[in-house]
Amino acid sequence: MPYGNQYFSNLYDLVVCITKAIDLVNPKVTNHHQQVAYLSYNIADAMQLTIEQKRSLVIAALLHDVGAIALQDNLDFNEEEHIELNAHAFLGARLFEESPILDKIANIIKYHHVSWNYGEGKLYHGEIVPMLSHIIHFADRIAILPDRNVYILSQIKTIKEYAKSGMNTSFAPEIVEAFLKICEKEALWLDYIYQPMISMVPNDLSLESIKLTLDEVVGLTKIFSQIIDFRSPFTAMHSAGVAAVGLKLAELSGFSEDECKMMNIAANLHDIGKLAIPREILEKQGKLTAEEYDIIRSHSFYTYRLLKSVKGFETIAQWAAYHHEKLNGSGYPFHLKGNSLSLGARIMAVADIYAAISEDRPYRKGMPKDRAIAVLQGMANNEGISQEICNLLMDNYECIEKARAESAENSAYNYSKIL
């Protein structure tokens, strides 16, 4: 169906999707963002903040550490605060500050590691620090306290004492006082560890009512693709290249305008599952071990599970996640073949392969035309990828390569600017 200016999806589903993906980077902090969002909401509620403030707070809390994955995978949130924490907060803000959808949360994220310091933390180098940033700062520090090996209700006293000890120095007094009002409630902490925890945020925020048009989803997922790709200089331009190639192939295949936008979204997010893969495997230049190869093959499965939960993404999830499936059934992770792979999935597979072999990486130059075409043709001959789509790419090589190269150049510029 044509979407035009109609709503296509909602902001909440997309934010939760990227939140869950970020949690995959470091299993030690799984659900950290959801827990910070939950605590932040309850503190804001005790402070009687407005619904609009609570809504912005929860979204910012769900995304507050996106900048960390571009710096290092093993950032230890349990350490005392240090300069790297501020660095990832500023990086996260830069990712969102130009977004018409998420620009309001950029400043909240930017200052979420600024200490109160007897009121001096109201400003940071002359800029106003939002109180919502201080709430996330407090909730972030509280969220890392509970010991998973000790029953949560047995830890309330210790958590309270920690909060009191940081009043005025690290944390704003009104935030600590609001927290202490609700800290004794057993339900707060039982909900805190309950799965899925973020569902405990009350419906009065109407987070799912923040609807997005197809164009808005394209713009938002472009930012998400940067979160995915900027994790490593090895992949800093990849999703942008896949999107450029996939979009051209979709247009040449007769896709409608809306379907082309959906292809763009799928390409932006096709590697979101790679956030679950350790950086040392992604950046390994030598041959992968059998176990490492098994690990890397899981990324398209994670892509499917993450995107399938987003309302309106049923088709997009398949196009994005099936990019390593083969027509002969030898691909992964579902071993689909033949008619089980739609035209969109076939386009994505060719776009992913072509972009990967054509783009420059720190350790090698991209393949020239003759070699790239030989690789694609060899895979088509073995019934791995679509001969029809390969022919389409070869017949329109110059315009497709031009689009890929320009997209890669723009992405490289954004990479250097943001990082």
TrEMBL record:
It comes from the Bacteria. Residues 7-195, 213-408 form the HD-GYP domain. The keyword Hydrolase applies. Transmembrane segments: none annotated. Gene3D superfamilies: Hypothetical protein af1432. The keyword Zinc-finger does not apply. Keywords: Hydrolase. GO terms for molecular function: hydrolase activity. Coiled coil: none annotated. This is Hydrolase. It comes from Anaerocolumna chitinilytica.
